[in-house]
Design goal:
heterodimer, A: mainly alpha, about 75% helix, globular, B: mainly alpha, ABC transporter involved in vitamin B12 uptake, BtuC, two-stranded antiparallel sheet, 16 helices, about 0% strand
Chain lengths: ~280, ~325
């Protein structure tokens, strides 16, 4: 029961972590190996803001989200856009290189020491069905569900969302219809970074950060989106909950020191057994 | 014909220089040449699966760690001669690679990359918790094992030469052709009767063998090992950076890339992070501007030179046509 509740609650956080990854994959067929660094980078920006101003980490999102999105747009436009049409390896190498650059930049700016974002709701507990869980877990689920719902609405109702889905379906056809595909791609990447910023700050509040933390979050995010069906928005939430529960159960069965092993094994098992995902695959 | 003779001459001169190295290099350079040779080996081995095979493995650090630990465990628990533990360690890495490849190689492109990264990190977290290999405190190589700096130089140097020669011969063999056909279009290759899975599995296992042997030498040189550095993702990162910067899927690529990175690092002694930052930026720049890497640029420049040299008096229209044909043939 304990594992079930924690797993479901953390599932919301995992969905927030993975949404940007699934969006970029769904639109551009690009797996962003630097996604973990988007998460961690946003958390570090929030750390810089909150440690100087004393602002609440979640409130700092009002500054962090636009900052990260603004930084992400030119990365896609200038570096990745020309590569996405060049087969699979070049964009993979490029995002891999970007992740190395970002990780090293984090070490240079924030040192290798673990940091975390301090907030009162990370330490106070709430009672759910007789189990005491950290308040931030509940907040994470709320934010995760809200992000998934908003993204779904945005993709289906907004003009930009429709352009984005058109570009995902057939970039050439979309271009002939007057959609600026290059801009849509870059804006998608910026939107993904904005979503990652929320996930990253939640990670910073709930867990802790080091410059290399991003790698394990990339793998966790990837597990979530493979389970949810690559590119599926609601699937991401379902995938997040499944991964959350599986991780909690695994840690209980094998012992907490095998926590990482459970996560990475889960990824491999999921990849091998259900590469098509549990819940279909389609952008929203 | 003359070109081939030239290449042979350069190779012979390089081999002679390598062989006599300890006589004319300073002790410091003999010591750091070991690291250079292991870099070349690792990058060249990655090039086999990543460059010629087109399988972007992010898990190769695992085979360094397995080679290191296998050697340490064999030296501690058996009385086998040193050279055979080194070869056995390579085989252990190779067998693990073959077993891991059975599920992993069914995944294509990005899925394979992320899958190998997952396996590599899973192996690291396993080693952290495995009592037999000393958990986080790791293992020490028995003190009876001692190699001089010259011995280490020759061991790593021969391995680098052997690996490069092996990858070169593989790339020119019928098997190499099958491997590259699978890289370029797996479905089309399958139509022609090439079993993509088996071809890739062989390349993956072979690649892991060389990496495992290099890992064994690294362990013997360091004399003690612990999981975080033995399975460090930095190994994978270096292999990929060196291969891509030098030239992916080209025999000279990993050698040039390793040399370049190796030259860069002492310049930034004490600024390890800056050197990583610069190599990372270089990687992004290369893949964006010159995806063939440095060797790719050299080859293209040489082709252009030769094409213009062969038609000095042709009229402009003819020249353009000849030039195009030349280029087509060169490709």
């Amino acid at each position: 029961m304990h594992e079930l509740i924690n797993g479901i609650l953390l599932g919301g956080l995992y969905a927030a972590v993975a949404l940007g990854l699934t969006l970029v994959f769904g639109v551009m067929r690009l797996v962003n190996l630097a996604h973990g660094e988007l998460l961690v980078g946003a958390a570090y920006v929030s750390y810089a803001i909150t440690s100087h101003t004393g602002l609440d980490p979640l409130l700092s999102l009002t500054l962090v989200v636009p900052a990260v999105a603004l930084a992400a747009y030119p990365i896609q436009r200038l570096i990745l856009n020309p590569l996405v049409t060049h087969g699979l390896e070049p964009p993979l190498v490029a995002t891999f290189g970007l992740s190395i650059v970002a990780q090293t930049a984090f070490v240079l700016i924030f040192t290798s020491d673990a940091k975390s974002l301090n907030a009162s709701y990370a330490v106070t507990g709430v009672n759910i069905l007789g189990e005491t869980v950290p308040q931030v877990y509940v907040i994470s689920l709320g934010i995760g569900v809200a992000l998934v719902a908003l993204l779904h609405l945005g993709l289906t109702r907004l003009r930009f969302g429709k352009a984005l889905r058109a570009a995902a379906e057939d970039a050439e056809a979309a271009a002939t219809l007057g959609i600026d595909v290059k801009h849509v791609y870059a804006a998608t990447f910026a939107l993904a970074a904005a979503l990652a910023a929320v996930g990253g700050v939640l990670i910073g509040v709930t867990f802790s950060l080091t410059p290399t933390t991003g790698t394990s979050w990339l793998l966790r995010g990837f597990t979530v989106i493979v389970l949810g069906g690559m590119g599926s928005v609601w699937g991401t939430l379902a995938g997040g909950v499944v991964v959350g529960i599986a991780e909690q159960l695994g840690a209980t069965w094998f012992g907490p020191q095998y926590h990482d092993l459970v996560v990475f094994s889960l990824l491999v098992i999921v990849l091998v057994l259900r590469p098509q995902g549990l819940f279909g695959r389609r952008l929203t | 014909m003359t070109r081939r003779a030239g290449v042979a001459l350069v190779c012979a001169a390089a081999l002679a220089a390598l062989y006599t190295g300890p006589h004319w290099l300073s002790l410091y350079n003999v010591v750091i040449a070991f690291t250079f040779f292991t870099y070349v080996t690792l990058a060249q081995a990655w090039n086999l699966i990543g460059g010629y095979g087109g399988q972007f493995s992010l898990g190769h650090a695992m085979f360094v760690g397995i080679g290191s630990y296998a050697t340490a465990l064999l030296l501690i628990h058996t009385s086998l001669p040193l050279w055979s533990t080194v070869v056995l360690s390579g085989l252990v890495a190779s067998v693990v690679a073959a077993v891991a490849a059975i599920p992993l190689l069914r995944l294509r492109s990005v899925y394979f990359a992320v899958g190998t990264l997952g396996v590599s990190l899973a192996a690291l977290s396993w080693m952290i918790n495995w009592g037999y290999s000393g958990k986080t405190s790791g293992l020490n190589i028995p003190t009876s094992v001692f190699l001089s700096f010259d011995d280490l130089y020759y061991a790593a140097g021969s391995l680098a030469v052997f690996t490069t020669a092996a990858v070169f011969l593989i790339s020119r063999s019928p098997y190499g052709l099958r491997l590259m056909s699978v890289r370029d279009d797996e479905d089309a290759a399958a139509e022609l009767g090439v079993d993509g899975f088996r071809v890739k599995l062989a390349a993956f296992a072979l690649s892991a063998f060389f990496v495992g042997v290099a890992g064994a030498l690294i362990a013997i040189q360091k004399l003690n090992l612990e999981p975080y550095s033995a399975f460090s993702l930095t190994f994978t990162t270096n292999m990929i950076i060196m291969t891509v910067i030098g030239g992916l899927g080209m025999i000279a690529g990993p050698v040039i890339g390793s040399f370049l990175i190796f030259q860069l690092q002492p310049q930034l002694q004490g600024y390890q992070d800056w050197s990583t930052l610069i190599t990372g930026l270089l990687l992004v720049a290369i893949i964006r501007v010159a995806p063939g890497g440095i060797w790719g640029l050299v080859v293209r420049a040489a082709e252009r030179l030769r094409a213009t040299a062969r038609m000095p008096r042709a009229s402009t229209t003819d020249g353009a046509l000849v030039g195009r044909n030349e280029q087509a043939r060169a490709r």
